Amino acid sequence: MKKMLFIAIMALMSNCCFAVNAETDVFAITAKQMQTKKIYYVVLGSFNTLKDAKRFNYFAPDGLECNIYKTKVKGKTVYRACCNVFKTANEAHECAREIQKNYGINAWVWASVGVANCVVQETALSGEPIPVSPY
Question: pTM for this one?
Answer without folding.
Answer: 0.68
